[in-house]
Amino acid sequence: MHRRRLLQGAAVTAAAALVPASARAVTPTIAVADHPAALWAPAHYTVPAPPSERRVDRVVIHVAQQLFTPTVGIFRDPAKQVSAHYVVRSGDGHVAQCVRESDIAWHAGNWDVNVRSIGIEHEGWVDRPEFFTDVMYRRSALLTAAICERHGIPKDRAHIIGHHEVPGSDHTDPGVLWDWERYLRLVARP
């Protein structure tokens, strides 16, 4: 039995070596949040290769179809193969950062978009507007504005997109009830 486990471990190690380093998952570690108001809640992610060449040119807005705490838990589970840089809670606008902005989160369903974007999940469901609270919009917009400033991203709809706008996406979030006009007005405030 001991020999079998050694052989299985060797096979897993050999298989992992075949995956390019740029696409391998990294186990979450202790880190400092990029956004000062965010609580660090680590998730799995990919380190860009080379890290210094990561250029972020958009923010992708998501609605989790889930509550805040289970969303963060899903992002911690490597078997789910999903994560986002941030999660915003509906009731009080609390922000958790799950992946550093310098790393790649698995949020868009399109690797090219993942590589060049920051993903923000929002607690709630696309068909339940009661989750789109004033405080959630305000805190999320402050976060998006700060991300845009840090990365030199224009604060417009061409660069702040919904998950449904990602090429090849089969998602509908943030949905027709998401108030883009209001959100972009809040993002644009100084």
Commentary on this structure:
The protein has helices at 2-18, 68-76, 111-115, 134-151, 180-188; strands at residues 25-26, 39-40, 45-46, 58-61, 86-88, 95-97, 117-122, 160-162. It is built from 5 helices and 8 strands. Strands 2-6-5-7-4-8 form a 6-stranded mixed β-sheet, with helices on both faces. It has a two-stranded antiparallel ribbon with strand order 1-3. Helix 4 crosses helix 5. With 190 residues, the chain is an alpha/beta fold. The longest helix is centred in the last third of the chain and has 18 residues, at 134-151.
Name the features.
single chain, 190 residues, alpha/beta, six-stranded mixed sheet, two-stranded antiparallel sheet, 31% helix, disordered N terminus
Which ranges are low-confidence, i.e. pLDDT below 50, for 5 or more consecutive residues?
1-24
Provide the β-strand percentage band.
Answer: 5-15%
Order of helices and strands: HEEEEHEEHEHEH
Instruction: State the assembly state of the protein chains.
Output: single chain
Number of strands: 8
Tell me the overall shape.
globular
Number of helices: 5
Q: Strand arrangement, largest sheet?
A: 2-6-5-7-4-8
What is the average per-residue confidence, as pLDDT, rounded to a whole number?
A: 86
Q: Span from first to last CA? A: 64 Å
Q: Helicity level, as a percent range?
A: 25-40%
Tell me about the biggest sheet? 6 strands, mixed
What is the CA-atom radius of gyration, in angstroms?
18 Å
Query: Structural class of the secondary structure composition?
Result: alpha/beta
